[in-house]
User: What shape does this take?
Amino acid sequence: MKVLIIGGGAREHALAWAVARSGKVSKVYVAPGNGGTSMMGGKVESVALRATDVEGLLRFAVNESVDLTVVGPEQPLELGVVDCFREEARKIIGPTKHAAQLETSKVFAKDFMKRYGIPTADYDVFTDIHAANAHIELLTSDDSFPQVIKASGLAAGKGVVIADTKEQALQANTAMFEERVFGDAANQVVIESFLKGEEASIFVLTDGADYRFFLPSQDHKRIGEGDTGKNTGGMGAYAPAPLVTGDVLKKVEERIIVPTLEGMRKEGTPYTGFLYIGLMIDNGEPSVVEYNARLGDPEAQAVLPLLHSDLLGALEASLDGTLGEVPFEMKEGTAATVVLASKGYPDSYETGKEISIESELEELDDVMLFHAGTSFDGEKLATSGGRVLSVTAVAPTLRESIDLAYNAVGYVEFEGVYYRRDIGAKALS
Ligand code: AMP
Ligand code: GLY
Assistant: This one.
């Protein structure tokens, strides 16, 4: 089988790695891929096509007789890549443009959850600054804050402001509606109440009706240790997240997964592919912070190495209506992923720094180096993005996988490398 993976981050490198392990696969293309997917050799090859070049990707899949395509990031989903591939009867893993609105439109997602009684923060929707400001001005009690102000559309994870005071909330309204810092993504703005608790990420693979769980994980969104500083794409992850007990998982299944899939089916737009539930868990009670229409990054880099059974087999089964019949087994043990970023990220940063990886790293069993912002400048591997590499280690206990991951980080170097030193620490305490 020939497989095409769309995207160029560490999540897509991890997908390529997981798919390439399947005995059934003869070729794995990654478009555009990165320095890491170009280095894999064997069956894996990077293809110089942007993840948003839907026409180009479809033409490539037809010309190369690709059997199955997997979509990594959200942008091609919003552009309707799944619809385009399906119109040409090409197999693809992901939701349609309409179903992907669970991620691409927060207004769609919130209204959907309200219709089906899925637990989430109370909210209102605004399309102009006067109404949004009037809403904030009416919040007279101090315990009305924080309020959470969100651009409805895609904003690369940056369109959310947690306003601790009335002034900050009014400022956020100005930034969204008048300064238009999120552009058209803030044509509609959701203002919602603040959820207390701890966050976790749950991914399922679904055919629209049946679904299979990956292990629950936890991201580290802030740039600084102790969850301080700016929000990022994610600085590290671990799995399984002990916060998600069997009891919590059962509630997530009954109150969130089942009604979400049923609701989408009932509305004539079944949701297929990977579904990411961003949870807030407070005293064992889960509610939805957000849906994403894909796997999380960096969570995927921790979760995929813990899948014991064949990923490709499960992906095919999700298209054949046999998802409930194939093995979907997890390894015993844990995984920790540390993200190495460029100095300055998530603000501006320099690229083109040479990356050195000592050969000792390759000799470490159970360590995987997934690339994101890396590329080849001739023979030289160099940085080309904010998040540069993900180092994942798998070990029996979380303590061991964290130690092994940081030990492996010591074998990688580039000028200005930054990483958090407390990945997973919360789960140990
Ligand atoms: P989102 O893009 O909706 O996932 O929001 C990004 C981040 O903002 C989340 O991962 C949370 O850390 C935080 N967040 C969003 N909505 C809320 C909420 N209602 N209460 C508390 N934190 C939130
Ligand atoms: N790790 C958060 C995300 O992928 O959206």
Observations:
- The mean pLDDT is 96.
- The longest strand covers residues 273-282.
